Amino acid sequence: MRRWGNTNRINGTHNQQPPTNGGNGKGKPKPAAGSLDYENRDNYEFGKYGYGKNHVKLLHVFRDGPLHTIREFEVDTHLKLSTQKDYLDGNNKDIIATDTQKNTVYVLAKKHGIKTPEEFGLLICSHFLYMYRHVEEVEVNLEEYPWERLQADGQEHNHAFLFSPNAIRFATVSQKRNESPIIIGGLKGLRVLKTTQSAFTDFYQDGYRTLSDDNDRIFSTVVTATWEFSTANGVDFDDVWITIKNCIFDKFAGPPDKGIFSPSVQNTLYLTEKMALDKIPQISRIEMQMPNKHYLSVDMSKFPPSILENNENKEVYHPVDKPSGIIYAELLRKNLISKL
Ligand SMILES: O=c1[nH]c(=O)c2[nH]c(=O)[nH]c2[nH]1
């Protein structure tokens, strides 16, 4: 999890002028002269610091007559204050208690509702920056529970839902005072497998290599993807998430009858990222991980033919948990790189 990272910024900040009584002061109060804790203090400085509440669990139900819509989240809120007197001096005056942070999540959900994880994260960031002048930076992580509307008699149910954990959606929104927010969308845990249209051949040959070329192998992976938005204006965050999931399916599986050929996990990963950047102009970069979950053919050659009714030895595979290959890459729009 990225904490207090700093990369590209999105245009347009929220009004972050705090109420006049927000926060209670800056500067380091001096502990009593001669205090042991005070000695040598100037020899040190803080690196990363902050605090917050993790795993605030929340179900939001929107009742539009008989049609109900739900979103369930676990939310982490993290604040970085401009003062460090809580750490340095045991002075708690500036601390917005983690319990208060938890309450804030519930109150904001009740007051404003929840549309998407990204928009709820933006709301929480701007709330803390607006309310408390001594909050320097906010980071919010949101993980969504994968509820889908239940289908009954071929029809979408008004108020019943099915837990469908085939891909977990998450988002991270962070914002520094007087800067634009950074919005990261994400997907993880998407496990897929195909039984053909995957090969791995012609790779580096030397005395350390024992793996044979394989022209037709099983390809299975558990996809993680994260992407950064270059704008929040007019973005349909739900639609972006579904589009990226569909890019993964398109480049991994291809059309239902013929599929799509993969010469390596690396190439499939790159083509997926490229398709996502081509399709979604509002994202500036995408990063993916595809572990290679190996399924190895069981060697049947030592069994006598009489014991095997069918001699075809590619029907039984041994799923190998560990070790697994790990393939990853980040793809960025080139014009953004050259502007840095
Ligand atoms: O698609 C693959 N990429 C690799 O880098 C690799 N390495 C390996 O052993 N098998 C595979 N498969």
TrEMBL record:
It is found in: Peroxisome. This is Uricase. Urate binds at T98, D99, F200, R217, V265, Q266, N292. Residues 1-20 have a biased composition (Polar residues). The keyword Membrane does not apply. PANTHER family: URICASE. PROSITE patterns: URICASE. The active site is at K53 (charge relay system), T98 (charge relay system), H294 (charge relay system). Pfam families: Uricase (PF01014). O2 binds at T98, N292.
